[in-house]
User: Fold these one by one.
Assistant:
Number 1:
Amino acid sequence: SLKPAYTEEANVEFRSDAVSRSKKEITRISQNVGGNIVARIYPEGGSNKVGLGLFLKYLMGATNTSQVGSSPTYWHGFPPFRDPFSDCPGAIGDKGISVHVNRPTICSDVRNFPFQGCRVSGLTIDQDPNAALQMTVDLFGQQALANQAEIGSPTYSTIAPFRSVHLTAKEGAVTPIGTAPNYIGFTTAGTDDLSLRSLSIAVTNGLVDQIVLGSQVDYPTETDIGVYTATITMSALAKDPASGWSSIDTYEKWISDTDVELFFEWDNGVVIAGGATYKLVVHLPKVHITDSNITDVLEGENMFNMTGEAISSSVDQYSIGLFVQNSVPSY
């Protein structure tokens, strides 16, 4: 749903337009691009980068990569970067993402509609039962270019997308491996397994594009950094079992103003090398519950619903940890 947007000003002159009492002309002043992309989340392999890792890099501002042993397996972390658009080592700098959309036009002729100089301002991960994992990537950018020749022979992932059966969801204190914020793995002993009906995790970075004087162009050339915000929404049956995770207990933590730690891992079981598999990991070390309720019904089961906001952890040095394991050497 990417689309161009324009700022325009109307001109009305007292003398020449006095009779018609109408606008004489409308002048286009500036332009930009905004919208989102909705896609399944696929594991990435080799040179085949199908979106997730690159979007996470441009969302958080940096990538920390380590090789898993001597195998062609790589663990990528995406820690928040203080000034992602500077010339500091590891920063994105002045790079942007260009999005190319192939669209059929007249007589089934396919043309490429490019959107230039995009930044990633937000990313939402949605998981429903019996469904593929889905992401919505929010973008803004500089300008839409005139349509061009089709980009032929697109490359698709040869690995099936992550889906609900691949998800392990946990509440409780996990044990990171390595040094914060650049962890290289986690152990989850002593945590409780969540049994969820729906899950949505949204991350925004507060970026704002700016048009600046002296640039001599009519589109944004600078981006102001903002505050990272991560929110989570999940639902489950309202249950209080004798052992294991209790949604009732989590509801009571909202009443008592107690934060929770949440951990989610998608592992498709496909071996890269040496037993290592493709993974997506989301770690929320400190979630402040902002809203929760239990819906009472006459037929069926009562449902538990929760919304929370991730708070920065001084130990982990992030509010949300985002990690992928795959066979991509670098982003």
Number 2:
Amino acid sequence: GVANQGLAYLHLDRLQDARRRFEQYLAMTRKLDTRGGGAWALARLGDVELKSDDPQRAHAHFTSALEIARNVGNRWAEGLALGNLGMALLGVGRLGRANVRIRESLAIAQELSDRQGEGAGQSDLGTLYLMLGDLGRATEHFERCLAIAREIGDRRGEAFSREGLGRIHLAGGATAAARTELRAARETASAIGGRRRHAWITLALAELETREENPEGAGRLLRAVASTGRAVDSPSLRVLALARLADASPEDARAAAAIYAAHAEHLPLLHRMEAAFLLGRATGDPAYGTTAGADLDRLVRDAPEDAPVRIDAVPLYCDVRAEGA
């Protein structure tokens, strides 16, 4: 049906097609007064916006989905909406509120014996702690996600958790282990048709090549990421790939700056921070550094009370803080 077509398009990164199918399904649920289906459709529309690099619009859809799920007493839909809200809140840098929502979602998944939902919650917590710079706790949650994904045959969950573990190794300077995990994650992402996920993993591999002083290898990977970013209409992928190339290419610097100017307001906060830092370094414009510093300050300010941001554990945060010192 229309809903399954939307899911297929979503997984293939055909976001405009997915959006149209989910909007059609939402209209059907309203006509038939099936509010539980409406909550699901709104959650899927939120997924489209998250993939489109617009966590603010995603947050609005997920909030509506949560309201409907609670009104009809659908605990599974409530848990799904809470987890989705957590990811949208991570996107806008509200880490403390994200922590609450993700844990609420995980509790519902455990209550319902929903192993896939539980795996998603563990992955979301891994992402949260990676953003906080708590690499130890991030590792624990991604390893739990990986175990569940293998238990239930969830290849997307396996790819995401191994990517997370690779990023943790990269942040900690363990480049050999990072390469192993990231390559395994990218292979799985390729096998299931996830072009966007494949590109994000490739971007991390490009960072690895840069750290190992292989600019030619990094450049090839970054060109591939920029090309995929155009194909899947991801301003985050495009601006981050081109901004990393900007040091050596004025043309890429201009292209990255144009994308940043057009989309910065809606980009996920972490992507905006990184793009601003890279553009500031490439162009010498202090306004970019000011923006990156403000975004880092927001992350620090909105962190969970019991889990402050560990700036020293995240190379990007260290660079941004040093630039503003």
Number 3:
Amino acid sequence: FIYGFLSLFYVGLGVNTYNINRKSRANKIFLAISSTLALWSMLLALMSMSDNPETASFFRWIMTVCWSSLYLEILLFALETSGIWKKINHKFLIRIPLYIPAIFNFFFYFSQPIPSDYLIRLPGAWAYQFPLDRGLFYNHYFTAYYLIYMLLSIGLLFYTSNKATHTRQKKQATIILWSLIVVGVISSFPDIILPNLGYTQIPPVTVVISFLSFLAIWFTIRRYSFLSFSDEKLFLELSMIMNEGFIILSENNLIQNINLGARKILGINPETPINQIKLDRYFDENFLNSGESLSGIKAHVNNFKGDRIPVLISIAEIRDTFK
């Protein structure tokens, strides 16, 4: 039940965060992390419901894609939120090596799955006994990959937290930093260290512990607009409080958004719905259908009260680039 709930939780949070700002690379990576944890949780739920070790072993084999990609995604997230990704985005020889350890980890362990004989049935779940007869490389490659990528991610966010000059950025980096420490340190002990020491009585808990970290990230989204703050949003918020009139129109000249300055000029009450108001009814001249960008053009506005007000008009047309 817990794993099934977590799967739905990660899907919902990831999609909700992505929809806040679909253009943001950080939001896209966050969606990828959420999807990985959702798939991992779902496979653990199916594994826990399995009646025999062979079926449980099959679901654990599929999980290889999850624990191979998760720590790469976390590092990419740290690179993006720290601002370093922008510096290496066009440096092909730096970016590609970041993916190689995760890709190798997947193919290496996917081609050599743990046999069903190593699975141990616990009440409501399955645990596994780590095979110690496959050599040093097999036993410790994933541990090394995991530790290096988590330490790099934590180091990047620690650097960002100390370097940040804005309160918003500093608090965001600090919350995410401690969230990763919770996932990286606490979850590694029962899921990685104990199995290597031969203790096998604890089921996988990474996705459960990650739940706490994602709650912290959700808090930063709501409290500090983390992953939802963009230059476009800032510009729109500033435009909405300007005394100068600012109006966003649809292609049919219907008002989509309007600030207080424009409402005062046009005589539109703050309570009046705007979605069915056509702006061209207020002008003597047919500026809006000219298809041209205009700047500082003298015109007159006929407002709701019947007053004829002289104004300066600037018009810019923005076309949807979706193809």
